[in-house]
Amino acid sequence: MELVIKDIKSREDIKLFTELAKRLGLKTAKLSMQEKEDIGLGLAIEEGRKSGYVSEGTVLKTLRKIQNKK
């Protein structure tokens, strides 16, 4: 199984995307802001494991990007 996350702002586009996913037999889910932040933090942690040290600033910057996409 694979996961695709797409940030869609327009209600019209959300409806279109959801209808297409349903026709294709795919599952969709709406994520809360907390869930988005958790994913961002998890990605930052995973990147740190691959490349070594990740600064606090990098983690905070990633979280701010996610929060600003509300």
Low-pLDDT runs of 5+ residues are none
How big a fraction of the residues is strand? under 5%
Largest sheet: none
Determine the mean pLDDT: 86
By DSSP, the count of extended strands is 0
The CA-CA distance between the termini, in Å, is 27 Å
Radius of gyration: 15 Å
Number of separate structural domains: 2
Summed up, the helix count is 3
Structural class: mainly alpha
The shape is elongated
Helical content (DSSP H or I, runs of 4+)? 55-70%
The SSE string, one letter per element, is HHH
Note down, in words, how this protein is organized.
With 70 residues, the protein is an all-alpha fold. The protein has two domains: 1-30; 31-70, no CATH class. Helices cover 64% and strands 0% of the residues. The protein has three helices and no strands. It has helices at residues 11-23, 33-51, 56-68. Helix 2 runs antiparallel to helix 3.
